[in-house]
Amino acid sequence: MAEPDDRTLVAELLGRAPQGAFEVVVRHRDGSPLVIENAPLLDDGTPMPTRWWLVGEPERTWIGRLESAGGVDGAEAAVDRAALDAAHDRYAAAREALLPPDHHGPRPSGGVGGTRRGVKCLHAHYAWWLAGGDDPVGAWVADRLSEQGLRADVATGPVAAIDCGTNSTRLLVAERGPDGTLVTRTRRMAITRLGQGVDATGRLDPEAIARTLAVLTDYRSDLDALRVGAVRATATSAARDASNRDDFFAPARAVLGADLELLSGSEEAALSFAGATAELADRPGRYLVVDIGGGSTEFATGTVHADGRIEVAGATSVDLGCVRITERFLHTDPPTPAELATARAHCDEIVAEALDRVPGARSADRLVGLAGTVSTLAAVDLGLAEYDRAQVHHHVLAVDRIRRLSDELFALPAEARRSVPGMEPGRIEVIAGGLVALASVCAAGGHDSMLVSEADILDGLAASLLD
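User: That's the sequence. What structure does it adopt?
Assistant: Structure tokens below.
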């Protein structure tokens, strides 16, 4: 339902009082209504065929001029007839689904603007397109306006970033605040273990795919509720290694309405660097950012300037992560000294090679750690009974403290780790593998402390959409 102020504004724009329920679904950047979504029935039960209605100015005037110049005939000639017919059918089906189940009176008919075929009203097509509808006529109208240098001054809504990692699937919905900073609307994480067994089989397990799709379906409800305008969804190490990734990508696209991007390791590292250092302008300098994931670890270096500019110098990714190390080396609960020694030797070699490949990795002023292993260790260090992002974010872990906590956790069986304050339940079985990788990073990097960042690849993905 429209707020009282919106009803007043829409009445002023239309020159008359609205006769039914509606909601403002697209606004100008100044907050004024641009497109409203009508209920399928007016207050007196009269069918309302036009679901999306263009109410904003100057857009209504622009479309009126386009129609006067033969725009309806132009759209009829330019747009593929089959695509237009399909759009009418989608529009009608979506509107029909909104009718009350017990409604037995007259029903709205036709497709866009109440017509079944062809083009009746460019205003209605453009309104649907502005509201995110897949309308070929609306897209044609936008192109014609663009040729005249005209573009609707639409407020940018929140954007969503989704990361389908080896161990967890995460969501960030964010928008830009008045000061240009990233403002979080919601941030969620679920342990889905998409990469379960991939290191051994080279394939995604059907049960792991099902778990991850269930979480994505849950996230889809957040995208709808928060009216997310753009989505960037990525898959990383587990999908890179899996020969059957399409078994996951196709249904994921159906759920999200957006393609999953398969990021390369260097792309993943650069995005993690951008997200992790975005809030560090007050601490300018050269940074090494390390993201220890479930199946891979990313290393990126660069400079953060006092004016907020970020320059990435280099990035790489290696097949080293908490799930991969656990499945490959740590078979005993708790891991034996021999298993830990073998895992450490393997990690030391790979980390040293990675640091040699990235410019400035060994001379960075500061070390920043990302992802679940680092966050969990910070929460354990803080003794948090419940996760508190504000306390974990930018917590400083001394390297000596990392060693002591790691040794304590290595000695505990999985069931005993469960009672450790700060230990995330979904990380109990794989935390030892992550800590082995973290120890190698600390030893090779030569730093005496690590800055923990809860801003990471999700923040980098969201910023890429908003920018």
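The mean pLDDT is 86.
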